[in-house]
Amino acid sequence: MIQGSNMAEAHPVGFQWVVDAKQRGAKVIHVDPRFTRTSALADRYVPIRAGSDIAFLGGIVNHILSRGLDFREYVLAYTNAATIITKDFRDTEDLDGLFSGWDPVAGVYDPASWQYEGHQEDSPSVAEVAAHKEVAGGLRHESHGAPVGRHTQRDETLQDPRCVYQILKRHYSRYTPEMVQEVCGVPPDVFAEVCRAWTENSGRERTTCLVYSVGWTQHSVGVQYIRTGAIIQLLLGNMGRPGGGILALRGHASIQGSTDIPTLFNLLPGYLPMPHHAQHPTLDKWVEGTIHQAQKGFWGSARAYCVSLLKAYWGEKATPDNDFCFGYLPRLTGDHGTYQQTLDMIDGKICGYFLLGQNPAVGSAHGRAQRLGMANLDWLVVRDLYEIESATFWKNGPEIETGEIVTEECRTEVFLLPAAAHVEKEGSFTQTQRMLQWREKALDPPGDCRSELWFFYHLGRLIRQKLAGSTQQRDRPILDLAWEYPTHGPHDEPSAEAVLMEINGYTLPDRQPLSGFSELKDDGSTVCGCWIYSGVFKDGVNQAARRKPGTDQDWVASEWAWAWPMNRRILYNRASADPDGKPWSERKKYVWWDPERNEWTGFDVPDFEKTKPPSYRPPDGATGPAALAGDDPFVMQGDGKGWLYVPSGLIDGPLPTHYEPVESPIRNPLYKQQFNPTRRYYDRPDNPLNPVGSTVFPYVFTTSRLTEHHTAGGMSRTLAYLSELQPAMFIEVSPELAALRGLRPLDWAHVVTTRAVVEARVLVTDRLRPLRVENHAVHQVWLPYHWGYAGLVTGDAANDLLGIALDPNVLIQESKVGTCDVQPGRRPTGRALLAYLADYRRRAGLSEGNQRG
Amino acid sequence: MDNAASPAAASGYADPPRRMGFFTDTSVCIGCKACEVACKEWNGVPDDGFNLLGMSYDNTGGLSANSWRAVAFIEQPAPPKAPDGGAGDLRWLMMSNVCKHCTHAACLDVCPTGALFRTEFSTVVVQEDICNGCGYCIPACPYGVIDQREGDGRAWKCTMCYDRIGDGLTPACAKACPTQSIQYGPLDELRGRAEQRQAKLHEAGETSARLYGNDPGDGVGGDGAFFLLLDEPEVYGLPPDPVVTTRDLPKMWRTAGLAALTMAAAVVAAFVGRSR
Ligand code: SF4
Ligand code: SF4
What gap in Å lies between CA A712 and CA A365, rounded to an integer? Predict the structure, then answer.
């Protein structure tokens, strides 16, 4: 199942394995608004209205539950299906699209009624939830579930109306094939075929794998899209088993790495939360904030992870007496996400900005806001391979033409620094399977180009030099840093392996490499830069650099590179065996209990305590790993179960519910509640949204990538061999829409939203088709977002069309769907462009101060 | 090795290595164009201009002096559903076209300078330092592969990476292809593999699968680079029944001299007019 992903085009190298599987008999289904190169290789392509995936997947959940097609033994033993929820819980079915606990003033839910029975007391307050939403607290759950206590009430018969199974069944009972047709535009026979294929190919003998990418994440309900996929995969027993799982394909070579060792404002390495000024005043509170008192699971050792990280930062200066320098860590005071920052720049609240490997002028949603923000800084540092748009907006951006930015008056001083490319530096990439692969340097970077490692090491060194001797308290965190790394070569390049060694962790004072995170101590006797990566330098060997060919080892290929945690290739793989520890089937054998040797064994590193038998039951009062039973495979969850229902940790509800995108051509057919009620929206005059069902913006647009280009084009529109393959910004439209709007192949057309007008050449193709939704035709158009005003081939940036509305859990922008108008011909230029847009806003009923229609 | 199986042997190589070739299986091509880029990178082929052609995703527009691999994209209604459910009502065919390295290569026959030659691997290569730009080879090719470079005048085409395969390396395009749509190897092995693949597709209900250029009995004596197609060759811009344009050349040389070449050119021109 590939949905929300154009895998063949955006991940062509990984797609070879799909082609391989297909040749061995796998059936491939692709669900997407547009027929892509992925659809071309699929056995079945299903067109869907952009932004309606929860309704589609919810329909599959309904299909499974109403027919009892779930993998019952798996579901009963390994998920929270049997767990009882409080009697106060009310579903969106009862409240027309809202869950119980909605607080319209705070804009968040009080989740007390969502909790497991008996856990109400542990529920965070509305104020805590609101603070959590501000800082996208949900992101920290990537390595573990939200905290819940261990003791739960269960009904093993699954009959109690308050058990998760029954709640789930009621919640999705209206997600019928007819409803799927009405919301998604998918005909019942096609839908039935997908349901059949997925359920028939799951169970003891077979598993189905689900692939998604940013086609799912970039929505105002993106997290819940993925949750719906997770529910299906849990119900069908496809988690923790070979050939199953949910594969999140990442947008770049090391995006997984950049959340593990985060480039995000709200996380520290290994998904430790960045301390919040109010919630985490002390080390103890910070550690407490990451775990639950009575929590089962491995997260119970959080203090050791936290302290070892502080030791990596501040070395010998970090002692038990000063809380290991916890006071030096920066504090969150609210939303410091990238979009809030952009708006803060516009408002003059931010002075300086570093851009590394990022090109927001054309690569981020609402390009105009990005550029206006950057034009209002004191300084901007751009490190890139080329002179990208974010370095030249002050002279070449579209606002020059409209007069909104005047080169002579633009106050921002831009420093463009040349960066080394990936083949010109050593380091590691972490891919979607959490696998770290070491990269050798192939050649020296040309001229002044330098690696990021070189840049930050020497920047830190120079800042420390400048601050040396300072008596200011505020300079202590920098001056006390452990900043010694061996360097080599004519430019004093720091050793990337030394950094990896620090990430892996070592003992003090003898600096022996650790072999895994279970060796971490909370007394300051271990150093570890990222607890989940501990083991990557086991035995002093760079495990990520291992290159034993697949042909020389078994099919799991554990000796190729290294995957976190503990070189485990499939997470939660205890679930590949039945509760008694025997493989579900010979065919799907993976990890199992060996009763003779009294240990877990198998093809992969078991994701379980090696000698804990399946029959183990925790004694009363047990905490940490000891609180997990021998048949609790989801060891990072507080209750050891896979969560069909999420009692805690999500802002927008315990169960995925269909909401329309913030810009939609229709009213929500399922509920009175139109949008995700908790969506994050910045309500300001420079961020208007197209009104729901507007006849001025009647069409749906979606944007994505082509194989031939890379993201905003900085690494591809600068190269002739790639530019010639896709030389111009274009728009794909169906023959029906082309006829309706008078669009002719290769002619110009322009696309209008309340934010921007973007012009493009027309490609008329059957690969887009109008869908019948609520008995009228919804036309969808598609644009690549690769173009901008720098490079060998230039064109308008599709991201300019987007407004800023975000998922409340992780603050990801809704950039995969919006509404628009499409007109033939080129767009107006200069001042006329602003007047044209103003006229559209007026016709759509928007005025200054009324951004949402 | 008998001469029919080895054009290299027929060309006078004593005990040549096995004939090497390409099997391009279009049923697994994802249209990524990595083959086009890898070819240009390795061979230093210039870009072909930044032109949006509106031919689906094909902005290369076919083989030329500056594009030795060219991926064709064909959007078409899908044939009637295969027994276990087809991919819907639409098909998007992709095919990476290349020089066919014919068994009977007309380009080679007409080249007066010897720039075009048969290698020990039975491939056909133009030597850039010998080619004088006379252009005779261009109308001679029944596939319209070989082409003169503007501003340079010389003829250019795929060499099957002669400078790589001699060192035991895989040609750049095949090496870059992520799905093994382009397979490189000894031609007889590839032919066997292709037949198996075709049978497998037929079994799976993909009855439109057919091999193209694999038959030593065809008008060019079989191609060194052959294909598995999912539709008629014309759909991909390939001639249905290519014939070596110089089949009767020796006789004609004797009787009509250069006029024969002109005629061959006319035959090709007539064909090209039909197929494009
Ligand atoms: S074999 Fe070499 S020259 Fe021929 S198309 Fe492939 S890469 Fe280009
Ligand atoms: S590299 Fe392979 S898959 Fe990609 S276009 Fe070429 S032949 Fe097709």
Answer: 11
Tell me how crowded residue A624 is: count the other CB atoms within 10 A of its CB. 14
Domain residues for the domain of A14 are 1-45
* A-to-B residue pairs, Cβ atoms closer than 8 angstroms: 112
- Nearest-Cα distance to chain B for A391, in Å, is 24
C-alpha separations of A91 from A168, A169, A708 in Å: 10, 11, 45
Containing domain of residue B274, as a range? 246-276
- Positive or negative: CA dihedral A478, A430, A383, A270: negative
Instruction: Please indicate whether residue B181, judged by its CB atom, sits closer than 6 Å to ligand 2.
Output: yes
Q: Are residues A695 and A766 in the same domain?
A: yes
E strands in A765-814: 771-773, 776-778, 780-784, 805-806
Tell me if B174 CB under 6 Å of ligand 2. no
**Is A354 buried (19+), middle (13-18) or exposed (0-12) by CB count in 10 A?**
middle
DSSP string across B49-117:
------BTTB-S-S-BTTBSEEEEEEEEEPPSPPTT--S-SEEEEEEEEE---BSS-HHHHH-SSS-EE
**Nearest residue in A to B37, CA atom:** A721
Whether the pTM exceeds 0.90: the reply is yes
The minimum-distance atom of ligand 2 relative to the CA of B69 is 6
Walk along chain B (276 residues) in steps of 10 and give the mean pLDDT of each run.
74 94 98 98 97 97 97 91 57 97 95 96 96 95 95 96 97 98 98 97 93 94 97 96 76 46 46 40
Q: Which domain CATH number covers A696? A: 2.40.40.20
β-strands A757-764, A730-733: how paired? parallel
Instruction: Take atom 8 of ligand 2 and give the residue whose Cα is closest.
Output: B29
What confidence category does residue A829 fall into, taking pLDDT thresholds of 50, 70 and 90? very high
Residues in chain B: 276
Same domain, A616 and A742: no
- Number of domains into which chain B is organized: 2
pLDDT at site B247 = 67
A116 touches A85 (CB < 8 A)? yes
pLDDT band at A121 (very low <50, low <70, confident <90, very high): confident
CATH number of B162's domain: 3.30.70.20
Mark whether A751 and A618 lie in a shared domain.
Answer: no
In chain A, residues 765-794 whose CB comes closer than 8 Å to chain B: 765-767, 792-793
Lowest mean per-residue pLDDT among A47-56, A412-421, A632-641:
A632-641
Q: SS3 for B30?
A: coil
Q: What is the pLDDT of residues A445-495, one digit of tens each?
A: 999 999 999 999 999 999 999 999 999 999 999 999 999 999 999 999 999
List the single best residue of A45, A724, A763 to mutate versus B (max B Cβ within 10 A): A724
Indicate whether residue B125 lines ligand 1 (CB < 6 A): no
* Candidates B30, B40, B48, B64, partner chain A, best to mutate (most A CBs within 10 A): B30
The pLDDT value recorded for residue A145 is 65
- Considering only CB atoms, which chain B residues are within 8 Å of A725? 33, 36-37, 59-60
Whether residue A688 is found in the same domain as residue A834: yes
CA–centroid distance, residue A507 to ligand 1 (Å): 54
Question: B156: which residues sit within 8 A by CB, 6+ positions away?
Answer: B45, B65, B66, B68, B126, B128, B146, B147, B148, B149
pLDDT digits (tens, 9 = 90+) for A484-526: 999 999 999 999 999 999 999 999 999 999 999 999 999 999 9
Question: Residue A266: what are its φ and ψ, rounded to 5°?
Answer: -105, 5
Chain B residues close to A723, C-beta within 8 Å: 47, 50
The three-state secondary structure class of A44 is strand
Pairing of strands A379-384, A413-418: parallel
What is the average per-residue pLDDT within A352-379?
A: 97
Half-sphere exposure of A124 (CA within 13 A, CB side): 22
